[in-house]
Amino acid sequence: MIVVTGATGNVGRELVNALVAAGERVTAVSRNSAEVPDGALHHRADLNDPVSLRPALDGAEAIFLLVAGDDPHAILKEAAGVKRVVLLSSQGAGTRPEVYRHPAMFEQAVRESGLDFTILRPGGFDSNAFAWAESIRTTRTAAAPFGDVGLPTIDPADIAEVAAVVLRESGHAGRTYELTGPALTTPRERVAAIGEALGEPVRFVAQTREEARAQMLQVMPEPVVEGTLAILGEPTAAELAVSPDVELVLGRAPRTFAHWAARNLPAFR
Ligand SMILES: NC(=O)c1ccc[n+]([C@@H]2O[C@H](COP(=O)([O-])OP(=O)(O)OC[C@H]3O[C@@H](n4cnc5c(N)ncnc54)[C@H](OP(=O)(O)O)[C@@H]3O)[C@@H](O)[C@H]2O)c1
Q: Which residues contact 222 (CB under 8 A, 6 or more apart)?
């Protein structure tokens, strides 16, 4: 049995599907009830309340762990019987640990857990473009700051495929994989790619840093907003680098943003 936390999210949903397709028994965990594919069970639990995970972890072989809740040691204590833990961390834990303290704290706890662990550090997700879905649907516009700064965003389905491999196969213990897409794309180019997939132009609206900050503060804590704005506006060499790790694990290049947009068109129609 493999336990997948964050099972209804952009990564988790794809991961549950991939594991079930590979013939694994899966327990999908999220706080809210959810439909899961045949072959998977759903368990409601909150990572803020590690004991709530106990029934799902009883007899489990591996856990895919999301960074959520404030006590990774208590979560990992509940997971003490598993053979393998795969942590969905964040690129920022490596490039800006003073800002991304939460994923950095989870990484340290996983390293200290005594379990076989693999850490996944993705950069920005292609699915962050869902933030444009409503304005693209209603006005064929999309607003973002730093329109001409490229980053190698990653398809969450590729993160899920990597996770499925490292959860099922040995040989990845102790490794940290930096996960990016295949090339740098700018926000302006991503908006154009959605327009191309739609067959209709979508207008890019340049946001100021202040406008973007105000919007992000509604959904993120202040230090993370500042860190995210710095990555989007003034990425470091490490944040600009296209990583070989998706190809190393999957034996194929990561998918492009255009591929993600084409698969997710209904959200933008
Ligand atoms: N977006 C990015 O650019 C980016 C970059 C690097 C790393 N990451 C990391 O990747 C993670 C996953 O991203 P995603 O896009 O797949 O997330 P998402 O679509 O927002 O989904 C989050 C999932 O986690 C569950 N969840 C949230 N809080 C929980 C809690 N306290 N206990 C149990 N389940 C909880 C949610 O379901 P319920 O709400 O029902 O619980 C949902 O299944 C992020 O949380 C972040 O740490 C993201």
A: none
Q: How far apart are CA 15 and CA 227, in angstroms?
A: 28
For 4, the token pair is 């997948």
- Tally of CB atoms within 10 A around 252: 10
Phi then psi for residue 66, to 5 deg, are -90, 150
Distance 199 CA to ligand 1 centre (A): 31
**Residue minimizing CA distance to atom 15 of ligand 1:** 10
CA atoms within 13 A on the CB side of 256: 11
Task: Encode pLDDT of 61-80 as tens digits.
Answer: 999 999 999 999 999 999 99
Q: Please provide residue 41's backbone torsions phi and psi, each rounded to the nearest 5 degrees.
A: -105, 155
Smallest CA separation from ligand 1 atom 7, residue: 90
| Stated pTM of the model | 0.98
Based on the number of CB atoms within 10 Å of its own CB, is 241 exposed (0-12), middle (13-18) or buried (19 or more)?
A: middle
Q: State which of 30, 43, 57 you would mutate to test the pocket of ligand 1, scoring each by most atoms of that ligand within 8 A of its C-beta.
A: 30
Rounded-to-integer distance, Cα 185 and Cα 227, Å: 19
Confidence class for position 184, pLDDT limits 50, 70, 90: very high
Which residues have any ligand 1 atom within 6 Å of their CB?
5-12, 30-32, 46-48, 66-69, 88, 90, 122, 124-125, 127-128, 156
pLDDT tens by residue, 196-254: 999 999 999 999 999 999 999 999 999 989 999 999 999 999 999 999 999 999 999 99
How much is the mean pLDDT over the chain? 97
Q: pLDDT (tens digit, 9 = 90+) per residue, 136-155?
A: 999 999 999 999 999 999 99
Dihedrals phi, psi of 142, to nearest 5 degrees = -145, 130
Q: How does residue 28 score in pLDDT terms, banded at 50, 70 and 90?
A: very high
